[in-house]
Amino acid sequence: TVAKQLTEHHLEQHYLGCSRVFTDGSVRPSDGSSTAAVILEEAPSGLGSGLGFHASSTTAELTALGLALAVLVSITAPSSSPRSWVICSDSRAALTRLSALEKAPPLARRVAATAEILTKMGHSLAFQWVPAHCGIEGNEAADELAEKMHRGGNIQMTGVEKFDDARLLVARDIAARHPDARLAAGDRPARVPRSLGRREAATIHGLRTGSAW
């Protein structure tokens, strides 16, 4: 595909000589299973793990990035020659968290701290967004491994805890307790258009809630 060709060209042009690492996070809404996977292009197999709770997709993707960095730290001895790595992810949201750490959740900051360990060892490190499902071999392999982890009966769990997704989990719990069964099930009404005046918007909200005021 065109997307694959453009991505491969970009990687060759900007990261020539870098070892490529691909990551992917996956969340299965049906049962809340959440997984993370890492593929090192130069390694025969990858590494996958589970989160142990129903995480957000961004948290799963950040977990995969953290897992990749932990793998790189573990396989590169302090005395080894510095290397260049490019970590490829198809999650813009996760990469954005890493580029704005002042507003990022604790998990993103821990991922950044692990990246700093690697750079202090003398290694060169870059993060690169890649499009999903366009035939990029490493990305497809990471996606397949993350999906496979859902079916694993005894998979290793990451150190990521529910606290890392506290905001999402609290919002889910509040929504599930809503007295309207439709809202509790996630069937939320469309937002009132911003273009409407205050009176019209109030009328719509009144009709929805069954309130006369």
UniProtKB/TrEMBL annotation:
Q: Which Pfam families match?
A: RNase_H (PF00075)
Q: What is the lineage of its organism?
A: Eukaryota, Metazoa, Ecdysozoa, Arthropoda, Chelicerata
Q: Which domain of life is it from?
A: Eukaryota
The family database entries (CDD domains) matched by this protein are listed as:
Rnase_HI_RT_non_LTR
Q: Which GO terms describe its molecular function?
A: nucleic acid binding; RNA-DNA hybrid ribonuclease activity
Domain RNase H type-1 residues, every copy:
15-151
Q: Which organism is it from?
A: Ixodes ricinus (Common tick)
What is the protein name stated in its UniProt record? Putative tick transposon
